[in-house]
Amino acid sequence: MKKKKIAISACLLGEKCRYDATDNKNVKLLAKLENCELVPFCPEDHAFGSPRPTMDLIQTKEGQKAISNGTGADLSDPIKQYATVFFDKHSDIDLFIGKDRSPSCGVCSARLYDKEKNLINTKEAGLMAKEAKIRGIRSFDAEVFICPETML
Ligand code: SF4
Q1: Backbone angles phi and psi of 30, in degrees to 5
Q2: Is 116 within a domain?
Q3: What is the pLDDT of residue 152?
Q4: In a mutational test of the pocket of ligand 1, which residue from 6, 15, 16, 17 has the highest number of ligand atoms less than 8 Å from its CB?
Q5: pLDDT value at residue 1
Q6: DSSP 81-132
Q7: Alpha carbons 111 and 58: distance in angstroms, whole number
Q8: What is the CB neighbour count within 10 angstroms for residue 117?
Q9: Does a structural domain hold residue 150?
Q10: Beta bridge partners of residue 95, listed in sequence order
């Protein structure tokens, strides 16, 4: 039987690609995925390297943007471009698993702020996860996927 092809945040696999060059390795999650083909991604490391300043998802008049907490720069375009190239290249992805709460990878858990940094939503999709959802790919936050009732 053909293995399920799963796009997954690289930090969950143990890659040290977080903003502080650490990882989010999730052994329980990896055990659940042992018979799958895993395709890791990290838009932020690809665009900005690790370590890097953190960023937040901000609601603006032009839509949701990833804004650097270090410089205030709009970092959205490199993340979106990475997502487009990734999903075009891997058009046969069966499932997307993103690191919960990330402004890039969170599926239903990213925090959204207004321009004054007031928290306005805690159930947003990050910029890469949004692209997965637009393309109709089944998508889960990692913390949801490891729940026993979540099936492949
Ligand atoms: S949550 Fe996404 S952007 Fe952040 S380190 Fe993990 S893979 Fe990279």
Answers
A1: -65, -35
A2: yes
A3: 78
A4: 17
A5: 81
A6: HHHHHHHHHTTT--EEEE-TT-TTT-SS-EEEE-TT--EEEEEEPPHHHHHH
A7: 9
A8: 10
A9: no
A10: 6, 138
10 lines ligand 1 (CB under 6 A): yes
For 84, other C-beta atoms within 10 Å of its C-beta total 13
Domain that holds residue 102: 5-145
151 inside domain: no
- Regions of the chain short of the pLDDT cut 70: none
DSSP structural state of residue 78? H
Per the structure, the count of domains in the chain is 1
- Distance between Cα 101 and ligand 1 center (Å): 10
Whether residue 132 lies inside any domain: the answer is: yes
Residue minimizing CA distance to atom 4 of ligand 1: 18
